[in-house]
Design brief:
Helices cover 22% and strands 51% of the residues. The chain is α+β, with helices and mostly antiparallel strands. The protein has an 8-stranded antiparallel β-barrel with strand order 1-2-3-4-5-8-9-10.
């Protein structure tokens, strides 16, 4: 074997060894990068996916609009609500709402008390943003005051319907917007006029999930 052939053979062996090392290095880096991407995708997916059997407590703050006969006894004003929610499935939540406020206008006044139990149904979810509809029944105790005479405090049944949106900031906090209509059933009175009317709430909400 001539010196020229030996040189060529050694050059070929060196190039083959280098190519094999480069190929191995590239495969290793590709595998590491693929694993990193898979972990990131899994993390994003898990953070975006809704968790079921999750509890939440929250507050709502916004405007209450009096409707029907109620608007003759008070003025619209900013009020607060309290919420409890339970994620029953990937599409439906249970939502309890407790609220109370008083509204005055001239020599008239109305007190609103309500405890409602609703089902939230989500039409679709886009990332951490989810619009929903809700409806339910509850207990109400509206009291009206006119010329210093107060109606008898009686509990009545009623219904609520609404819609809103939630935006989950992370696994424990969510903010949103809620519009809900409350309609207590009429209350008969002996000495004063019957208590009848409804009201509408437009609220900014915040929820702590656990």
């Amino acid at each position: 074997m001539t010196l020229n052939n030996v040189t060529k053979l050694m050059t070929f062996m060196v190039m083959s060894f280098t190519f094999c090392n480069v190929q191995t290095y590239a495969k290793t880096k590709l595998a590491e990068k693929t694993e990193e991407v898979a972990e990131e995708v899994q993390e994003i997916t898990s953070s975006a996916a809704r968790k079921i059997n999750q509890h939440g407590i929250g507050l709502g703050l916004g405007q209450t609009f009096l409707l029907g006969n109620f608007q003759d006894y008070g003025d619209n004003k900013i009020t607060g609500d309290m919420f409890y929610t339970y994620t029953a499935s990937y599409s439906f939540d249970f939502l309890a709402n407790l609220h109370f406020s008083n509204h005055a206008f001239k020599d008239k006044e109305i007190y609103l008390r309500g405890l409602t139990f609703n089902i939230k149904g989500r039409s679709y979810e886009f990332d951490n943003f989810s619009p929903y509809f809700l409806g339910g029944l509850g207990f109400y105790q509206p009291i009206i005051v006119k010329d210093g005479e107060e109606s008898e405090a009686k509990n009545t049944f009623g219904f609520s319907v609404g819609a809103g949106t939630d935006l989950r900031l992370n696994n424990h906090f969510a903010v949103g917007l809620l519009a809900v209509f409350h309609n207590p059933f009429d209350i008969k009175q002996e000495d004063t006029e019957d208590v009848r009317g409804s009201y509408f709430k437009l609220l900014l909400t915040t929820m702590y999930l656990f």
